[in-house]
Structure formats: structure tokens, C-alpha cells
Design goal:
The complex is a heterodimer of chains A (153) and B (331).
Chain A (H helix, E strand, L loop, with lengths): L5 H6 L1 H15 L11 E9 L2 E3 L2 E4 L4 E8 L4 E5 L4 E5 L5 E6 L4 E6 L12 E6 L3 H22 L1
Helix pairs in contact in A: 2-3
Chain B lengths: L1 H26 L8 E7 L7 E2 L2 E5 L4 E7 L4 E5 L7 E3 L5 E5 L5 E6 L12 E7 L12 H5 L19 H6 L11 H6 L2 H10 L8 H15 L2 H19 L36 H5 L3 H10 L15 H11 L8
Parallel strand pairs in B: 1-4, 3-9
Antiparallel strand pairs in B: 1-2, 4-7, 5-6, 5-8, 8-9
Helix pairs in contact in B: 5-6, 7-10, 9-10
The chains are: A alpha+beta (153), B alpha+beta (331).
Chain lengths: 153, 331
Amino acid sequence: MSPHILPHLNKYRAWIVLALTGLLIALAPLPSRITTPTERHFRVEARSFEYHPAVLRANLGDRVTIELVPMDVVHGIYIDGYDLELHADPGQTEELIFIADRPGTFRFRCSVTCGALHPFMIGKLQVGPNSLLWRGAGLATLAALAGAWKLRR
Amino acid sequence: MKAERLARLFVIGLFLGLPLAILIARWLPPGSASEQTVEMHAKMAESGGWTPSDLTAEVGEPLHFRLTSDDVVHGFAIGQSDWPAVDVNPGEVTEATITFEKPGKYVFYCTRWCGPGHWRMRGVIEVSGRTAAEQEIEQPLYAVLGLDIDAPHLAAVIPLQRPSARRGASLGIPIPKMFQDPEYLRRHSPAETWSILRADTFTQELNDDQVWDLVALAWQNSTSSAALALGQQLYTQNCAACHGEAGSGEGVMATSISPEAQPTAESGHDHRPPANFTDPEMMLGASPALLQGKIIRGGMGSGMPYWGPIFTEEQTWALVDYLWTFQFDLY
């Protein structure tokens, strides 16, 4: 860096620090806990118009078994992003087995028109830690701090 | 002047002729008169079921269906026929063509659990034929025997351990000819068979449970793996929702037909829970003819559907055979 530019940059020092911190929060790799893939078994009870449990958590690489137990009428499950579909009648429990090989949070929805509130019958599959949430929270805090600092000046 | 007149006539002719032509065309019969098309709407039983629900057809003439649903997913199948069931989805039209070969009354029904009154979604197709020779309807065995389906038929003696056909076979005792006759076994309960065997001289060396093993062996001899497979398939599709996949009467629908859940007319004041097939006192005291009767007639104060018009005789016997697997060990 030449001394000619330095005083010029100095003027924007606060902004550069802010931007670098922001990039760090958004992109820095997390200290990943190394997990060995395991078997995960979920017994999902489906009734009009909810899943129980509605949030399924797995780690990357886990072998996930979803046992779909409809409790009243015919229900299904469709997992966004994984492109998997399954439906079952009451009394005929069906199983869906797959490897959770895509990280992220995915919605699953009922795939069989089961009644008036069918479109609202949703749940989510969470594969790996939910870093998006923490990164988002970090960025929001940073923005708040920057705002407070700007106001104080 | 002449051209002007012609033009006026043409316009008047057009105005009068067009509506007339449309009216006449409406009165003409449709192009394919031989094929009957039925547009059928499916709704949950609570809001009306099938529309239309009464149909007529002719033997040998194809009946064409355009099926659609007005609320949720339904299924469409015809009882006592090999015609495969189709799904009826809202917003879609399912086309199906059926040709009946025999005259008679056919019941069509819903095959997807669409609501608490799912099984009440039924309708009738009356098929008339040129061969009006109505074949005589055979009475089911329970009616021939005059069995009272609603009376309790409890077993006086029940085994201490689950009877096993394999243990029965390992005893090396030949089963008397009487108990090898499937007709005999259909008319008598396992408990009756047990008491006759127990009283016999050749079982003096055996304890009570070994005699039960012999009963299980006699039952195993009277059925086949094909019948059991058919029975299991029918059971999971039609019965497991209330009676449970393990036969214990704790199916997922059992809670919704309890009096607390539905004290209204919707359930027809059905207060009894679904039968528990793992209960030896109830099962071992019942003859196959009685169980078949319960399947055919339904009721029993538990909201059990009547399956008579849906299942063929072969299917009801296969179901009864499968019910015994909740009491006896095969291997």
C-alpha cells in the first residue's frame, strides 16, 4: 500500500471494518462438529391438518426413515428440495427411507388433498445446523451496532 | 332493388335459422348412442357422497365414467368385481370404462379414507340383461346355520400360551378325518373343536395346551398361503384403520368412532369399540361362519360396515383365514 492512498482510505476506515466484519459473519466457515452419519427414525403422525412432529432434524449424511402414520384420512408427504413423495391410508403405515445429502431447511407438505386446510398442512426437515439463522442474527446485530455508532457520532 | 331485397331476406333467414338449427340439434340424439357416459362427482359422505349414486346399465354395453372430486381425494371401485380401483382427485377428471358381463346389483364404493364416514360413500349400479335368468342368491353360511351374530360367543376354555401349528405337527399325532374337512371347521369354533379333541381317547397323554396346538394344526391344514396373502392384503386395505395393523382393535380410526368423539348422528350412536382379534376368549369361541357373517352383515353396534356387497365369498373366507393368524402361530 502506498502512502498516497492511505490517508484517503483512512477516511473510510470505519466502513471498511464494518464491511469486513459483515463478510466474516456471512461467510466464515463454522467450526464443524464432525458427525458420523447415523440412522434416524421419525414416526410422523399425520392428522387433519398437522404433522406431529412437524420439525425433523438430521445431520448431513444421516439415513433418515420417515414412518408416515395417518390418523384420520389419507395423507401424504412431499419434501421440497429432496423431491420425495409418499402417501398412506389410515391403517397402512408407509415408510420413506433416504439419505439426507443436502444441507439446509426444507419444507414438507401434504401431497394428498385431505380437506379444507390441506394447503396449510406443512412441516420442515432440517438437515445440518441452521447456520443461516445465526448468521442472519449476527448481521442484524452488526447493523444495529453500526446504526447506534453512527447516531452517537 | 332486387339485390337489396335478397340481402334483407338473407339477414332475416340468418336470424331465424340459426336459433332454430341450434334447437333442432339439441333434440337429436348424441352421436354415440351405444356408450353411456356418466359424469360423477365425489364428495365426503357427510356432504353427500356420490352424485349420482343410482345408476342403471345394460349387460355388455360399456358404461363410461368421468369421475371427479368436489373436495378431497377419493377412490372408486366396484364391489365383487376384478375391475381395479382408480383414484378420484379434486380438479382432475379420471376416465374409466366398465362393461358388465352379468346382470345384477353392483355396489360401488370409495377406496381412499376421505373422512370419518368414508365407508358410507357407496352407490348402486343396477345392471339389467337380456338374459333375465336371475341366478338364485346363495345364502351365506351364518344364515344357513341360523347363527345369532349379535350374541356373545365366548370360549369356555382358553389356552395358556399361543397355540402353534408347528408344535402341533411335532406331536406326530394324525388329526382325525373329521377335523380335516374344511366344511366342518367353518361351522365350528376352535373352542368346540378343542373340547371334542380333549374328550377323545387319543389325547389322554397330552396336556391342554398341546391339544390347542392340534387345533392350530387343523386350522393350518384348512387354509393356504395364497388365501392368507389375499386375506392380509384385504385386511390392511379395509380393516386395519379401525382394527389396527396388529389386530388389537386399536387402529387409528378407533378413537374417532368412540362415543366421546362423535356423539352425534354422524356416527349413528355407535358406542362399541372395534373388535380385538387378539382376544382369545372372543376369537376362539367364534366359528369362521360367525366371523364371515359379521364381515358380511356388519353392525354389531360398532359402526362396522357391511362388506357383503363388496367382497366375494372367496375374499370373505380369505379374510377369516387371516384373522386366525392373530390367535395361532403358523410356523
